[in-house]
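Researcher: Let's do a round of design. I'm pasting the structure tokens now; please hold your answer until I've finished.
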């Protein structure tokens, strides 16, 4: 059954007008029940993206990574999916969003708002400076803590307006070989270790 579901989930490019159920700045999702169960994804900005469909017990039914161009569209055919609840997870460079898909009586419906939107900070290092870039639409406070390789806390701060957070840290004169950046917000945590030397 698992292989049948994987094979039957075919992504095709369609340009069709259907009702929009979910939108954000990067992409929009549409569901079409007129002739078959399909979900269309419109990409509003060029980006790397990963699409994953999960079944019961977090079983991966379909997964695809790609570089998607602005203005393109993908359609996922769910015709062979039996009645039940599924999760569609979309991951881009800066965020991860999950939508719940319910299939009942040969009709698919998509949750109106994302079930879960996680923040995905981007850390880059250049010329002794680490730049933190966070695009977080939840706008919840974000705490940033930096530890050295011996787990000593070197820095901590809470940023209340975190919707567009860009911070630069001069690590060129740090005494440590590695620094770990820990970001927490609304019970979620992200950490990344950067080689300083």
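Researcher: That's everything. Go ahead.
Model: Designed sequence:
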């Amino acid at each position: 059954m698992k292989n049948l579901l994987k094979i039957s989930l075919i992504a095709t490019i369609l340009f069709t007008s259907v009702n929009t159920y979910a939108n954000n700045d990067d992409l929009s999702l549409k569901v079409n029940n007129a002739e078959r169960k399909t979900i269309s994804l419109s990409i509003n900005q060029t980006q790397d993206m990963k699409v994953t469909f999960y079944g019961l017990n977090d079983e991966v039914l379909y997964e695809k990574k790609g570089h998607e161009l602005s203005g393109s569209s993908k359609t996922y055919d769910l015709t062979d999916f039996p009645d039940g609840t599924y999760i569609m997870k979309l991951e881009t460079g800066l965020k991860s969003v999950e939508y719940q898909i319910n299939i009942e009586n040969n009709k698919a419906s998509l949750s109106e708002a994302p079930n879960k939107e996680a923040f995905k900070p981007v850390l880059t290092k250049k010329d002794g400076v680490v730049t933190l870039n966070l695009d977080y639409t939840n706008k919840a406070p974000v705490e940033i803590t930096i530890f050295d390789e011996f787990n000593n806390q070197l820095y901590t701060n809470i940023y209340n307006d975190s919707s567009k957070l860009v911070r630069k840290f001069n690590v060129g004169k740090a005494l440590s070989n590695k620094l770990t950046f820990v970001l927490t917000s609304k019970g979620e945590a992200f950490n990344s270790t950067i080689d300083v030397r």
